[in-house]
Amino acid sequence: MNNDPALQHAIKGAQEKLDAHLREIIQWHFAPETGCPFWLDWAQKAGWDPRKEIRTFADMVRFPNFQDEWLRDLQPEVWIPAKYKGRPFNIFETGGTTGMPKQRIGWEDYKVDYSEFSERISDEHFPRNHYWLMVGPTGPRRLRLAIEHLANVRGCSCYFVDLDPRWVKKVISNKQFEQARAYMDHVVDQATIILKHRRVSALFTTPKLLEALGEKVNLYDAGIRGVFCGGTTMSPQYTPS
Asked: CA-to-CA distance for 7 and 86, rounded, in angstroms?
C-alpha cells in the first residue's frame, strides 16, 4: 500500500467530491420538487428516505439491482423528473431482438457527453471542419444523435449508413448465415459508395464492420484519418493496417 501523504490526501479529496456529487444526485431524484414518479413511488414503498440514509458511495448497497423489465414494461412518463415535466424528450432503445426493447428517455445528456468527448480526441486524426461517416445502428438509438452531435461540435456534418442489429441477430439465431453475410455486404457496399463520392475524414463503426470495410477498401487512401469504434468488444484483429 502506498502511504505517500500527498497521494492519500488526493484520494481522500476525490472520495469526498464523489460522495458530495452522489448526495446531489440522490437529492434530485428523491425530492418531490425535482424527482420522477418512479423513484418517488419506489422510496415510499421501500419505507426509507435515500436523501437521509445515502451519504457516501458505499451506502449505495442499500439499493436493489436495477431491473431491465422496468425499462420494458413501464411507460416513459414515469421517468420524467418534476423539473422536466411538460418538456418533450428523446426516446432511445436497446435490445428488443425477441420482444419489447428497453427504452430510456433523455434530453441534453448526449450533447454534454460528446461535447466533452470532442475535447479529448486528436485534431490530427479527427480533423475539425471535416465530414464524418457513421456505419452502424441509427434508428432509435442514442448513439446516432451522439455521433452527429460530435461531428457538429467539431465543425461539420455526418453521413449515415444504417444497420439493424435486431435483424442481424434474428437471422443468425435462425442459422441463416448466408442472409446475415449478404446483409453485411449490403451495408459495407453503401459505406464504400459514400467514401468514393464524398470527402470523409472520420469514421464511426462497429469492430466487425470495420474489418469488413478494411477488406473492401483502403480506408486511409479513401481519406479516413480517424476511426471511432464501438458497439461491441474489439480485438487487435479488427484494426486495419
From this structure: 47
